Amino acid sequence: MSKLKDFEDVSLYTMEPERRNQLLKTGRECVVNWATRDGWPVGVMHIYFWHHERFWVTCTEQRKRVAALRRSPRSSVVVAFPEEQTITAKTMATVHSGDGPHADWLYPSLAKRVLQEQPPEVQEQGVPGFVARLASESRVIIELEPVQWITFDGRRVKAHAAGDWTPGEPWSEPAPHPVSG
After folding, report:
1. pLDDT, tens only, 75-106
2. DSSP H helical ranges for the chain
3. Within its chain, how far is the Cα of 138 from the centroid?
4. What is the pTM of this model?
5. Which of 3-7, 53-57, 133-137 has the highest mean pLDDT?
6. 25: Cα separation from own chain's centroid
C-alpha cells in the first residue's frame, strides 16, 4: 500500500453516494449560500431536512435570501460532519409558499428534530405547538435540489497517511466506536 506524501490532490478522498445520503439523513445544520444582487457570495446556517434527495429549509419572506434565490436560484449547501467529513452541493433553489403541501410534512419533521433542545415551555406544547410557531403568513419553504456534489472524507486521508488504505481501492466503513458509560 502506498502512503500519503502530500495534500496536493484531495479530490482522491471523496465518499460514495450511499455514505453521503446516510450522513445527510442524520445531519441537522447546513450553510445555505447564494449571491447578492451585486454578486457577493453569502451564506447562513439553517436547520435542514433531507427528503426526496433535496435539502429543505424554512425562513420568513423578508429574509434577503428569499428574494435573491427567486432572482437567481443558483446556490449551494455545505454540511459538515464529525471526522472531517464534508458535503457540498451546488443546488438550484425553489421558493415555495409556507402553507402548501410541503409544510404538512416539513414543519412536523423539523419539530421532531429540534424539540428536545427547546426550552421547557416550548417542549410542553409538543410538535403541534412547535408547528404553530412556524406557521405564519410570511413563512416560506426553500427546496434546494442538488445538481453537483463535492464530498470530502478526512477519515480516508488519515487511513492513506497511515498506509491502511490506498485511493482507488474499495473503502470499508470502520466499525462504530463502542460507547463507554
Report:
1. 999 999 999 999 999 999 999 999 989 999 99
2. 17-26, 64-71, 101-114, 120-123, 126-134, 154-161
3. 24
4. 0.90
5. 53-57
6. 9
Domain with residues 10-160, CATH architecture:
Roll (2.30)
Three cell numbers, residue 91: 443546488
Tell me 10's DSSP state.
G
Which phi and psi (to 5°) does residue 123 adopt?
Answer: -60, -40
Give the Cβ contact number of residue 95 at 10 Å.
17
Cα distances from 20 to residues 14, 16, 70, 86, 149, in angstroms, run: 9, 6, 27, 9, 9
Name residue, grid cell 446516510. 22
Q: Is 146 helix (H, G, I), strand (E, B) or coil?
A: strand
Please write the tens of the pLDDT for every residue from 31-57: 999 999 999 999 999 999 999 999 999
| C-alpha triplet 54, 118, 48: angle, nearest 5° | 10
Q: Which of 119, 132, 153, 114 is nearest to 17 (CA)?
A: 153
